[in-house]
């Protein structure tokens, strides 16, 4: 018997993005393999909408992509004078005021921010090329499981731009300032072995085992009580912004909440 989520079909399916929900696991799939899942403002709006449509039952969000490439990055049509149909071109945006440009980039960034919400754990399943905006989308997730053919690259600098889709903070956090600078400044490829050894990826597997590895990881996370995972994620997310004593205090406060909940004394 099919689950209700399957009976209802995708919760969202437009502009190269499909969202399906199966109880505690949601899957966001990039669905334009013919263009190597190149990204556009319409795709970013669809990703933002997917985050808003998540039911409260969802604990894990899997981000995956159809085809041989996870995402080849920004669709180069963005740099043409005509841009995308119904959208201001990047050249038009550059001619606008600072406030307008800032607001537009902030809107684009929303597609990359919700993956680190405290109430969910997000996992990117990455195969083939993950370049520029594709790299940053993978970095937006909490965890990354990669195929052994993965090729990460941050190519914005070679185009005269900077990475602006929220990827710089997690990149530095994962691999350190010097390596992050070198990766961005050179635009070189980071392959699977280096991705795992530097902490950029949690696990690398043969391409035909990628989906299975992500399912196994999701099952392991779901085996733990939801509130404990949520509290632990919040503790770890805040650790870099706290000194040692502040982190000790945060641990005590979080544990007090957990103990009270387990004893039935929570608010």
In short:
The chain has helices at 4-8, 41-52, 90-95, 98-113, 133-140, 168-175, 177-186, 192-197, 210-222, 226-239, 244-262; strands spanning 12-14, 17-22, 25-30, 60-65, 121-126, 129-131, 143-147, 151-153, 190-191, 203-205. It has 267 residues and is an alpha/beta fold. Mean pLDDT is 93; it is low at 1-7.
Please outline the major beta sheet. Answer: 7 strands, mixed
Overall geometry: globular
- The N- and C-terminal alpha carbons lie at a distance of 38 Å
SSE series: HEEEHEHHEEHEEHHEHEHHH
Low-pLDDT windows of residues: 1-7
Instruction: Kindly report the average pLDDT value.
Output: 93
Taking Cα atoms only, what radius of gyration do you get, to the nearest Å? 19 Å
Lateral strand order in the biggest sheet: 1-2-3-4-5-7-10
Give the amount of beta strand, in percent: 15-25%
Oligomer: single chain
Helical content, roughly? Answer: 40-55%
Could you say which structural class the secondary elements and strand pairing correspond to? alpha/beta
Number of strands: 10
Instruction: Tell me the number of helical segments per DSSP (H or I, 4 or more residues long).
Output: 11
Task: Based on the model shown, name its key terms.
11 helices; 10 strands; alpha/beta; seven-stranded mixed beta sheet; globular; 267 residues
Question: What does it look like?
Answer:
By secondary structure, the chain is of the alpha/beta class. Helices cover 44% and strands 16% of the residues. Strands 1-2-3-4-5-7-10 form a seven-stranded mixed sheet, with helices on both faces. A hairpin with a 2-residue loop joins strand 2 and strand 3. 34% of the residues are buried. The N terminus is likely disordered.
């Amino acid at each position: 018997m099919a689950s209700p989520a399957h009976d209802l079909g995708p919760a969202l399916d437009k502009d190269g993005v499909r969202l399906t929900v199966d109880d505690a696991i949601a899957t966001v799939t990039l669905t334009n393999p013919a263009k190597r899942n190149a990204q556009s403002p319409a795709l970013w709006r669809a990703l933002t909408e997917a985050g808003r449509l998540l039911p409260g039952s969802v604990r894990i969000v899997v981000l995956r992509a159809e085809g041989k490439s996870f995402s080849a990055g920004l669709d180069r049509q963005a740099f043409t004078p005509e841009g995308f149909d119904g959208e201001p071109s990047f050249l038009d945006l550059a001619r606008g005021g600072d406030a307008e440009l800032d607001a537009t980039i902030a809107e684009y960034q929303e597609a990359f921010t919700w993956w680190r919400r405290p109430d969910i754990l997000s996992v990117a399943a990455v195969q083939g090329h993950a370049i520029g905006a594709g790299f940053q989308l993978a970095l937006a997730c909490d965890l990354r499981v990669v195929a052994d053919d993965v090729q990460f690259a941050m190519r914005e600098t070679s185009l005269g731009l900077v990475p602006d889709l929220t990827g710089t903070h997690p990149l530095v956090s994962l691999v350190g300032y010097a390596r992050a600078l070198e990766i961005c400044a050179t635009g070189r490829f980071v392959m699977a072995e280096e991705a795992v050894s530097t902490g950029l990826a949690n696990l690398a597997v043969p391409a035909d085992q990628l989906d299975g590895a992500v399912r196994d990881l999701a099952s392991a996370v779901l085996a733990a009580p939801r509130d404990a995972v949520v509290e632990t994620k919040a503790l770890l997310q805040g650790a870099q912004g706290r000194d040692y004593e502040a982190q000790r205090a945060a641990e005590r406060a979080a544990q007090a909440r957990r103990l009270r909940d387990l004893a039935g004394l929570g608010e």
